[in-house]
Write a structure and sequence with these properties.
This protein is α/β, with parallel strands linked by helices and about 475 residues long. The protein folds into 3 domains: about 1-125, 3-Layer(aba) Sandwich (Rossmann fold), CATH 3.40.50; about 130-360, tm_1862 like domain (pyruvate-formate lyase- activating enzyme), CATH 3.80.30.20; about 380-484, no CATH class. About 45% of the residues lie in helices and about 15% in strands. The chain is built from 18 helices and 14 strands. The chain has helices at about 1-5, 25-35, 50-65, 85-90, 100-110, 140-145, 175-185, 205-215, 235-240, 260-265, 270-285, 300-315, 360-380, 385-390, 400-415, 420-435, 440-455, 460-484, and strands at about 40-45, 70, 90-95, 120, 145-150, 150-155, 170, 190-195, 220-225, 250-255, 290-295, 320-325, 345, 350-355. The strands form 4 sheets. The protein has a 6-stranded parallel beta sheet with strand order 5-8-9-10-11-12. The radius of gyration is 26 Å and the shape is globular.
Length: about 475
């Protein structure tokens, strides 16, 4: 949105940039918008806000139909595959909007309405764009990650991703970009998230950017990059090793280690280099590794996914995020829908419900697995307990199988994966490990107490677990009495 605002030229003086959350009522958002008496309202539409945007646009047209509603963003940029909100809006800008939104607003304010509802965004050379970083205000800097981009686009063709539609990756002029970032740092910005799809594509530029931050390193500086997992040459390793612990986070999209699936979805990835690089980053840097897997890809099976999970778990990243495949409008992966019987939900975020090779029940099971994995493994709160779970089995079963049994056990007891407070999660883990994993009270309690010690509330957990033990003992005695 700040890019659009930065490139509005003389229209900036009569433009207001507003941001809301999906937790706010559309009627309340509408009230705030109408107080400004706008002639044009531009909205950016994604799978995560399409429901709220649709309700808001309907309200705008019901209460104040003379306001021009302009939509952009990935959810409305791939016609004729469209959500219903497209029919309610006055204009749609497909693709880049910096110049096209300015041109459209200029025409509408001059009472010259374009004849075509759908406008193809003009993709300007990056050096012709006004950069948006001046328009991060002090509140943004204090309370938010600051999003920046040193390049746009992606040269790869992974079919599940809309970036596969890009022709290539284009860099911003590095000197101008770093000058803007330097201004932000001088304004006390410390949390930067690079939205480049391939930060380490051009290693020379990556090294220059990293050296720039090293020269300005402070204890509270934090950088997030999305990196290509199989491209980590020695020159890049050398500079990464110099960063302090916990100052870097890498988002690493592994998605799958299955070479047949990779070929099917046009994903080029050297699996061995990927493993070697993740292992090196884990052992030789203090970076936090957030890795991604996708379940539900065409031809994927539960067994294949389990194998990818086991291989990734063995590399010991701090986080493994398991996403269920979503149907993005315009994504080339949609060409596989008929052959592989890809059955997607009709409501946002359009998650796959079943495929030719994966049942609905299996998808539900992995959804729960992913949620419990977030609470237990990705949270970092249960390192000792997780090690106990993943190391508790014999007979050559896998980490995936071990955690799946825990997930099934927790769901059987809790009946949900949401609204589980931390004390209750300790109780659920205690109960599952004793009953379904046949572990001793002493071993389970020792692991849970080690984890709980990190929160400084050991006494509370002791009391909690003792109550749970008494409850279990009482239930056992009652069953015994009923048996007699």
């Amino acid at each position: 949105m700040r890019y659009l605002y930065a490139n509005l030229g003389e229209l900036q003086a009569q433009t207001t940039l507003l941001e809301f959350t999906i937790h706010e009522r559309p009627t309340d958002i509408l009230e705030k918008l109408l107080l400004l008496q706008p002639k044009v309202i531009g909205l950016s539409v994604y799978i995560w806000n399409i429901t709220e945007i649709t309700e808001l646009v309907e309200l705008i047209k019901q209460i104040s139909p003379t306001i021009f509603v302009v939509l952009g963003g990935p959810e409305v940029s791939h016609l004729p595959d469209k959500p219903a909100v497209v029919d309610y809006a006055d204009y749609i800008i497909q693709g880049a909007g910096e110049k096209s939104f300015y041109d459209l607003c200029t025409q509408l304010l001059a009472n010259r309405k374009p004849l075509n509802k759908v406008i193809n965004g003009e993709d300007l050379p990056l050096d012709q764009l006004e950069l948006p970083y001046t328009f991060y205000n002090n509140e943004d800097i204090r309370n938010r990650l600051i999003y920046v981009e040193a390049s746009r686009g992606c040269p790869f063709k992974c079919e599940f991703c809309l970036s596969s539609l890009d022709k290539t990756s284009k860099p911003f002029e590095l000197g101008s970009f770093l000058n803007e970032v330097d201004k932000l740092i001088k304004r006390s910005a410390r949390n930067f998230k690079f939205i480049d799809r391939t930060f380490n594509l051009k290693v020379a530029s990556s090294v220059t950017i990293l050296e720039f931050f090293l020269e300005r390193m402070t204890d509270d500086l934090y950088l997030h990059f999305e990196v290509i997992p199989d491209n980590l040459p020695d020159k890049l390793k050398a500079v990464l090793a110099r960063f302090p612990k916990d100052s870097l986070q890498f988002e690493i999209g592994v998605q799958t280690f299955d070479p047949k699936i990779q070929t099917l979805i046009s994903r080029k990835q050297d699996n061995q280099k990927t493993k070697d690089n993740i292992r090196w980053l884990r052992e030789h840097t203090g970076a936090h590794l957030h890795t991604d897997l996708i379940f539900g890809l065409p031809s994927d099976t539960l067994k294949n996914f389990a194998e990818s999970f086991d291989q990734l778990t063995a590399l010991n990243p701090q986080e493994i995020q398991m996403g269920i495949l979503k149907r993005l409008r315009g994504a080339p992966i949609n060409r596989h829908s008929e052959k592989y019987q890809m059955n997607y939900s009709q409501t946002p975020p359009y998650t796959v419900l079943s495929t030719r090779d994966i049942s609905f029940m299996e998808l539900q099971q992995v959804q729960r697995f992913a949620r419990y994995w977030d609470m237990i493994a990705n949270s970092g709160r249960f390192k000792h307990t997780l090690a106990l779970v993943l190391g508790s089995y014999k007979n050559n079963d896998s980490a995936f199988q071990r955690f799946m049994q825990l997930s099934d056990s927790l769901y059987k007891e809790a009946g949900s994966t949401w609204k589980i407070a931390l004390p209750r999660l300790y109780k659920l883990l205690y109960q599952s490990l004793l009953s379904d994993f046949r572990m001793t009270d002493e071993i389970v309690k020792a692991a849970l107490l080690k984890d709980f010690d990190l929160s400084g509330q050991r006494g509370t957990l002791d009391l909690l677990l003792n109550k749970q033990k008494k409850k279990r003992t009482g239930m056992a005695n009652k069953r015994q009495q009923q048996h007699h």
